[in-house]
Amino acid sequence: MNIQELQKLSRKKIKHVIGLMSGTSLDGVDIVLVRIENSGIKTNINQLGFLTYPFPPGLKTKILENSAINCGNVTDICKLNFLIPLIYVDAVRSLCKKFKFPLNKIDLIGSHGQTIQHLPTKENFYGYKFGSTLQIADPMVIAKLTGVPTVGDFRTGDVALGGEGAPLVPYFDYLLFHSKKRNRALLNIGGISNITVLNKKFGASKVLAFDTGPGNMLIDIAAKKFFNKEYDKNGLLASSGEINEKLFSALIKKDNFIEKKIPKSTGREYYGKEFLSPIFKKFNRISPKDWITTVTTFTAYGVFRNYEKFVKDETELEELFVSGGGSHNKFLMNSLQNYFGKNVKVKKVEDLGISSDAKEAICFAVLANETLSGNPSNIPRVTGASKPTILGKICLP
């Protein structure tokens, strides 16, 4: 493909686009095929197929080893930067086969990549003060092996302009879910929880969004430690225990991020095993089920506390739509409803006509389309960047 052909593609009204997202769960890659019509505020989508393609056994551990602060191995990271896109390519082929859609009919691929380090806070380093972020799984490998133009590395441009580089979903949320009748928020609970607030009276430039704190990450760490389970399926473990108030208070005291001013974003660097390690030692006599109940409740608390502190005065919510793995945790969903009360309806994002599991993958399909269309897709109020900017790198096959 040459530049002239890319320009022609950018003007195409209807595109078939694949979105790829592998996040903090590190279990595999979510992959979705969508039909996208138009761009910007006129964007319409239709989900044609979705699946989660698993990572090989042991890869999660290898990624975690190389994501820990001051523990990465440059040789491993170099190999992972090529291995992960190879897995993505297999996922693309698997999706096309399952849904009987020819690969050569795919117009575009959008890939988030795999975050290894996200360090947006500006620090002095050899006389320069800057933030940084690193998502591996080079999109050029995907483009060359699929024959499809691929857009990736979305966060770098925003961080270069002084932004947090996250969250990136709010622009997508505004395009697809803004209502002129109700104040609503979109809450995604992956490893980390992030919220997008859509005031019925505001335009895209005034969207408010940020990471609220832990999502499934602390729950998963505790489930692995006490029950050797990767996660608390449907919130069954949390439902069987009770909240330990002393442990709950210790978690609040330990957590400096929830109270941190916005804009803000976080990740495994903060909420990894190191976060819970000293608390595990101090509260080693609490029953395992009570541990799960308490950290799950704490996750809901983090969301609500941020709402009270940073959102409510400007936008009093009427609806909260939840996506991500946390939306399947019934105890967590009930905890959110208890915190927000009867005036806010807590629902799954499926009520808006979109799959909660596929939402973030769809987001990166849409962001890729926005990049190709020449539309800025960061929101400076959200990320703290100095200006709106087109995100991502376009890699030609």
Please tell me about this protein's structure.
The protein has a 6-stranded mixed β-sheet. It folds into 2 domains: about 5-170 and about 355-395, Nucleotidyltransferase, domain 5; about 180-350, Nucleotidyltransferase, domain 5. It has 15 helices and 13 strands. About 40% of the residues lie in helices and about 20% in strands. The protein is globular, with a radius of gyration of 20 Å. The mean pLDDT is about 95. Helix 3 (about 75-100) runs parallel beside helix 4, helix 7 (about 215-225) runs antiparallel to helix 12 and helix 9 packs across helix 12. With about 400 residues, it is of the alpha/beta class. It starts with a helix and ends with a strand.
What descriptive keywords fit this protein?
single chain; 397 residues; alpha/beta; Nucleotidyltransferase, domain 5; 2 domains; 6-stranded mixed β-sheet; 15 helices; globular
Radius of gyration: 20 Å
Beta-strand residue fraction: 15-25%
Shape: globular
Span between termini: 6 Å
Mean pLDDT: 95
Largest sheet: 6 strands, mixed
Strand order of the largest sheet: 3-2-1-4-7-13
